[in-house]
Description:
By secondary structure, the protein is of the alpha+beta class.
Amino acid sequence: MTAGTFTSASLREAQRIADEVLFPAALAVDADGAVPASHLNLLAEKGFYSLAAPPPLGTLDLGDFSDARTVVELIAGGCLTTAFVWVQHHSAVMATANTGNDHLRENYLAALAAGKRRAGLAIGAAVRPGPPVLRAKAVDGGYVFSGEAPWVTGWGSVDTLYTAARDDEDMLVFALIDAVEGATLSVEPLQMVAVQSSRTVTVRFDNHFVPAERVSGLVPHAAWLEREPEMLRFNGSLALGVAGRAISMLSDGAMVSELDSVRRQLGNAAPQDVAAARAACSELAMRAATALAVHDGSRAVLMDGHAQRLVREATFLLVFGSRPSIRAALLQELAKPRH
Ligand SMILES: Cc1cc2nc3c(=O)[nH]c(=O)nc-3n(C[C@H](O)[C@H](O)[C@H](O)COP(=O)(O)OP(=O)(O)OC[C@H]3O[C@@H](n4cnc5c(N)ncnc54)[C@H](O)[C@@H]3O)c2cc1C
């Protein structure tokens, strides 16, 4: 992808924001401990919080899923931390668009699509295989959630948490919860080597009451796991964004065609091949960021250079949103004999 190649006005706008606003500030955001509200406000103002919203609430000029992935890639190529906070939002939009709960649809959907409400995501704890670390129990008027969501990104930048907890019948209970600390909900900040300013925390629920009017739906755990490949595909675009930024900073055009090829692999992968495509995206991001460090020489170790930031971010993208199949594919690729 190069500047000015898009026919879609929204893709051109995403690229403009990435290149003119996000990238120039990316080192400062990385160091500052928080994503500036102005970044997220700009994304909201330009319609990017409606990425997953149905028309007429979805205001972007995009064709298909491939365009939506390109938006994620562009924003990630500008500032991965900003993209990482923003990208958590869209599951809540889809949930409120598709819910049978009229209260949620009427009170949340438009505000979420406009970015007036901003959502984080806390689903990994309940959806991962094995016993859930976040449990739901039906009570009068709703549910209580107990346990923890180990990784929740965007604390302080979101007002709503799209959360899943699992009940004793292996049903996932999805709900929109206020992202507010209190007697039954507490958070612990995590210290990370990259995207620290995403304010990723562990959220602990101690018999936290969730009224029925906040429940967007119940899904059998097994059915959810079957739908996973499509959701996993989107995370690959974060790695493509980091790879693309590093590649654009190499002076010789190296890896440009490889980036195109891996992007095609991600877009075209059949469900059973998404893991291999995700691994290819992560491996390319790591290699491209490493090449940029070598290209930049000694100054690559200085904290005011992008190479070290991109290497740290690529490291994070080796493990974020992983699954056993992605990990196996990555380990196989990394262990390939080259000599
Ligand atoms: C910095 C950072 C921020 C994150 N932010 C969020 C966030 O905001 N919201 C959020 O929900 N998650 C978040 N995650 C978690 C992420 O989505 C994955 O769950 C996690 O990266 C998987 O880590 P793991 O491979 O070490 O598996 P573990 O966490 O050790 O999980 C154990 C097993 O469960 C599987 N598993 C884990 N998560 C899922 C899942 N979601 N669906 C199906 N299987 C799963 C793993 O593949 C593994 O086999 C974040 C992770 C990181 C590193």
